[in-house]
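Colleagues,

For the teaching module next term, I've prepared a clean inverse folding example: a structure given as tokens, and then the sequence designed for it. I'd like students to try predicting residues themselves before seeing the answer, so please don't circulate the second half yet.
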């Protein structure tokens, strides 16, 4: 049936709409279960994200202190020159996993071949730069893990919003429309049956009168 127009009051249409109503209720149940799973997964991700953030706050403070000391002891130009000329020794692999049919990127830090040692010249630097570089290297996996959880929460929340909109459409538009159409068709068919019954009753009365008149005429003969 098309929404926004009155349903055709026939038994075939009634059967079709009843089947559609059953499907709509089944889909509603599936989406409602999906919503519950999404809410549970979001709660789990929030808990994991909080733990991941707690694990990086203290090391980040040490990193900021080491970088600040490096700037203070070597100067901005020297430190930035070292940074620009130093090749990357780590890379990030991005994979995808699914949670409740939602694609969630996963991040994994890998050290390039030969990247187990610091890759800048030691003549222009000092111990503060070494400390900052080691802290950052050790910290990157935790930062990526925290970012992974944050992104997962955002993606799951978007899917939850989409699922809730579908549930609302079923609850407040589609299912009520089907139920109204079923009530309308049933009422219309019942009214037609009553009208047909009254018509047949009147026809029977007419036929009975005709038979009685014919019998009376035959008796006179």
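(Answer key — instructors only)
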């Amino acid at each position: 049936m098309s929404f926004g127009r009155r349903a055709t009051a026939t038994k075939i249409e009634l059967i079709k709409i009843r089947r559609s109503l059953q499907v709509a209720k089944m889909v509603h149940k599936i989406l409602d279960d999906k919503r519950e799973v999404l809410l549970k997964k979001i709660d789990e991700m929030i808990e994991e994200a909080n733990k991941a953030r707690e694990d990086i706050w203290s090391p980040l403070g040490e990193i900021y202190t080491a970088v600040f000391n490096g700037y203070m002891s070597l100067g901005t130009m020297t430190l930035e020159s070292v940074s620009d000329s130093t090749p990357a020794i780590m890379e990030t692999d991005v994979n995808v996993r699914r949670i409740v049919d939602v694609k969630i990127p996963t991040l994994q830090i890998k050290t390039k071949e030969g990247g187990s040692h610091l890759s800048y010249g030691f003549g222009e630097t000092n111990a503060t730069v070494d400390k900052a570089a080691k802290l950052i290297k050790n910290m990157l996996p935790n930062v990526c893990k925290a970012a992974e959880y944050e992104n997962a929460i955002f993606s799951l929340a978007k899917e939850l919003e989409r699922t809730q909109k579908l549930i609302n459409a079923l609850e407040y538009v589609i299912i009520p429309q089907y139920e109204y159409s079923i009530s309308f068709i049933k009422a219309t068919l019942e009214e037609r049956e009553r009208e047909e019954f009254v018509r047949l009753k009147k026809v029977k009365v007419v036929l009975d009168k005709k038979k009685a008149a014919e019998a009376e005429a035959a008796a006179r003969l």
